[in-house]
Amino acid sequence: MTGNGGLRIGIFVFDGAEELDVVGPFEVFAEWGSHSQELRPSVSTFSWDGSGVRLAKGLRILPAHGADDVGPLHVLIYPGGLGTRPLIAQAGHLEWLRQIRKQTPVMASVCTGALSFAAAGLLSGRPATTHHDYYDELAELDPSILVDTEARFVDDGDVVTSAGVAAGIDMALHLVERLETVDVAAAVRREIQYPAG
């Protein structure tokens, strides 16, 4: 899956993204790099144009890349937060998501990031979840989505969605387990002192 360059994970950041949606998965994947036996994963952040962004509660992030120079990814993480609302209304952004989908093996959303996936048509006819306050909005964006109101995350192969905020950590640990091994995921969990479900 990675060739010789290692598994590449990109976290898309934007104004109004929820802090823990970004830094929770980032911490998991960065720690994974210290424990991986085979995949040599690396994680970086990127914004639309490479400029700094202000997250939902005021944390400022200077991403490593812009969308044009982040390069091909094996996993895309798309956070939620109130900043998803303007993005859902931008036809160009939704088309970008559809194009990224064609070349990225795993697309994963945290919290209301699923709303952007839904608006782009990436969840049509598929099981998915989001923050519990937004189940109805997810269904309104695409009535064909099979909204799971119980799961912390839903893994539908090439598209993975998670419930609200801290569930992004659960989803990230799941991806470590899925893409490498249970033992490596357990080692990451121990190192970040995140309790098992």
Characterization of this structure:
By secondary structure, this protein is of the alpha/beta class. The chain has a domain at 8-107 and 166-192: Rossmann fold (3-Layer(aba) Sandwich). It has 7 helices and 11 strands. It has a 7-stranded mixed sheet. The chain has a two-stranded antiparallel sheet with strand order 3-4. Helix 1 (19-35) packs parallel to helix 6, helix 1 (19-35) crosses helix 7 and helix 6 (167-179) runs antiparallel to helix 7 (182-192). The two termini are 29 Å apart.
List descriptors.
DJ-1/PfpI; seven-stranded mixed sheet; alpha/beta; lyase activity; Rossmann fold; Class_I_gatase-like; lyase; two-stranded antiparallel sheet; 197 residues; 11 strands; INH-QAR
Task: Give the secondary structure arrangement, pairings included.
Blueprint: E1 8-12, H1 19-35, E2 42-47, E3 53-54, E4 60-61, E5 65-66, E6 75-78, H2 84-88, H3 91-103, E7 106-109, H4 113-119, E8 127-128, H5 135-141, E9 146-147, E10 153-155, E11 159-162, H6 167-179, H7 182-192
Parallel strand pairs: 1-2, 1-6, 2-5, 6-7, 7-11, 8-9
Antiparallel strand pairs: 3-4, 10-11
Helix pairs in contact: 1-6, 1-7, 6-7
